[in-house]
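Tip: read the tokens left to right.
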């Protein structure tokens, strides 16, 4: 990980869950992190990491539904940190309902946050990475629903569609990077059930954690550090990460 020392990683959805765990792991390994999320109070709490590690945690309040907020964040990264070396597209949302009953507003929110926002982040990160011609890495934190749309069989309407779309974006990104001969690696993450607040916020009963095996956010953070620390000529294309019963 020495080659990533003090390089900048932009992490979306950094205020809790998987994004928080990834931010902590990257800072602990010496990277500087620019955490993006809407809950500024939660982001501020993570600045306590700055007393413990070589890396530093910085943050910006950012509404990923708002393109202008995303552009401001990447302009800030370019102006203050000399560009982006690592992008972690992590923010996401889910809504509990069937296709027959889901509200149009929920459909738009799921697609906007799970597909459109990370695509904009990729575009802006690529501009920076190509401009500086440094080694870089893009992580798209997807879902097992980006591989199998119907298992586990939950009422999640457009969520798998957004994740299959993001899987296609990840594959297209890899193709374009190969064609352009960029020094950029891309890894897609496809985790099973993870214990985060997205379940309760999405309208699901958190008691499912008492029934189903689940991953902890730190499990994904450890996997990300593993992929990031691989030799420069090694790209871990995809990681399918499933829990086993404890």
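Filled-in amino acids:
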């Amino acid at each position: 990980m020495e080659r990533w020392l003090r390089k900048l990683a932009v992490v979306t959805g950094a205020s809790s869950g998987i994004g928080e765990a990834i931010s902590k792991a990257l800072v602990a390994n010496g990277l500087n992190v620019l955490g993006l999320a809407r809950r500024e109070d939660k982001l501020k709490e993570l600045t306590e990491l700055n007393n413990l590690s070589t890396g530093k945690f910085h943050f910006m309040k950012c509404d990923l539904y708002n393109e202008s907020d995303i552009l401001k964040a990447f302009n800030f990264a370019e102006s203050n940190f000399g560009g982006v070396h690592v992008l972690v597209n992590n923010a996401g949302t889910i809504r509990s309902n069937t296709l027959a009953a889901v509200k149009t507003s929920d459909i738009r929110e799921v697609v906007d946050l799970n597909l459109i926002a990370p695509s904009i982040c990729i575009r802006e990160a690529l501009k920076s990475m190509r401009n500086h011609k440094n080694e870089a890495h893009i992580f798209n934190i997807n879902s097992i629903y980006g591989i199998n749309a119907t298992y586990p069989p939950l009422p999640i309407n457009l969520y798998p569609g957004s994740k299959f779309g993001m899987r296609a974006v990840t594959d297209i990104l890899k193709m374009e990077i190969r064609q352009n001969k960029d020094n950029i690696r891309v890894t897609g993450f496809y985790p099973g059930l993870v214990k985060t607040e997205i379940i309760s916020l999405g309208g699901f009963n958190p008691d499912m954690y008492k029934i189903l095996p689940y991953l902890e956010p730190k499990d994904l953070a450890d996997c990300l550090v593993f992929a990031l620390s691989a030799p420069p000529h090694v790209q871990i294309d995809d990681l399918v990460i499933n829990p086993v019963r404890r």
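The mean pLDDT is 97. Helices lie at 17-28, 40-45, 67-81, 104-132, 159-180, 198-201, 208-211, 217-228.
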